[in-house]
Amino acid sequence: MHANRLKAAAALLLSVFFTSCSDSPKVAGPAAKESQAASEPISGKTAFWEMYKSAHSWAADRVPLKLESKSVPGVTIGEGKAAMWSATFGSPRLRQARVFSYSVIASKPDIYKGVVIGKALPWAGPTSEALAFEPSEFPIDSDAAYKTGSAQAAVWLKSHPDREVSFVLGNASRFTGPVWYVQWGDKKSGYGVLVDAKTGAVVKH
Length: 205
Prior knowledge:
alpha+beta; two-stranded antiparallel sheet
């Protein structure tokens, strides 16, 4: 693996997308007032569909821009599943983007169970570094991407067995379609693998 190119590609996916900045997030459904017993972590696509359905009430023309695993205290991300995910959608008609999140557990002070709707942000449309994609373009789920990535990282993981894994799904002009970026540890000293979300193959650089 050419480390510099992989880090550059990862930086593209991680830096060009929005992060939630809602002062008072909207909870789509009852908000959990108390922390609850941990539920089972879920795959990215499972969480995505909950957010995608909710985003329809905001904008029928919404298009996915990013899907990302999130950490929840006390729940480990592993084998392609997480207790919380976020998805960024853009609306060409409204020229806005919005970050949604979905968690299987509530955790004080700011993690709510279910779908949370972030603040609408100005959006000028797709760029070469942040292309929209369709749900049909990523048949490969995060758990399958994890299996492929962990096989690629097997040697490194033997020496770093305790590094937590994270997942980002996004698209850019340098790729043929959306890709999963599977990252163990941090970008500086960790290990990352890009997996084609259409075919499940490792993306070579």
